[in-house]
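User: structure tokens for this one?
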Amino acid sequence: MAEPPYLRIAAELKRRITAGELPPGSRIPSVRGIAAEWGVAIATATKVVAALRDEGVVHAVPRVGTVVATPAPSRRSVPRRDATALLTREQVVHAAIDIADEQGFDGLSMRSVATELGVPTMSLYKHVRGRDELALLMADVVFAQHRLPAVPPPTWRAQLELVARMQWAAYRAHPWLPKLLSLTRPQPMPNLLHHAEWVMRALEDHGQGPAVVFHAHITLFGYVRGTAVNIEPEVEAEADTGLSADQWVDAHGEMFGPAIDSGVFPAFSRVVGTPFDFDLDEVFEFGLQRLLDGYAALFR
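Assistant:
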């Protein structure tokens, strides 16, 4: 049986990597580039990248693309007594953040953190109980890096705008973060609690009881987080395909042709028929302002 085309292409890219033509850290051809170079369909090119990622040969780097992975050091070079003795929880957490920023949270493991730090995997458990606790510590450190000012703006609306934009900035910088946070089961993260305190203090003396203030806080948090969960998939899709969201729509817009031409969705056809750029930051800001317009009917 003939070898599938995507495996032949993957083998050629692995040959280039082994030969040093694509050194560690260099970007491999995008899905679109693979399709053009080998004359295959986008779906086939996508399977090439997926096969290389499954083998650990390449990985996606946010805002860069899919790059050649750096080989892990040999086992004999990893465990170092001096590194283990000097290891701190802060080092473990920051190494985990660096890995998640580069590979996404799914690429994070206790083993990958240990390899990054050059210590045995079991030494990490002296500082964290496991991946779940590590995730909470990572999130809390990120929110600590987005600290609210000591003196708040003069109005409740300006205060809510500021905290929402700071959360958005944290999600933008660390696309893996939104999916670690729970809306219904609060997690014990002191630095995130500062954000909750900020919102509740901004709203509590404006004519509404505790339940309304709490619901307003949760709704704002949920809006920012809910919009931000789209950041990581888009970063990964752009890295894999080499296309921005607008470029992808331009390249695949014909798939909406039957729906537009059918006459069944006239409003949709009129709206999408007007050219405009899609920008997730603009979507966030538009929704934030409309949400706060609604809050203005409640808080004097």
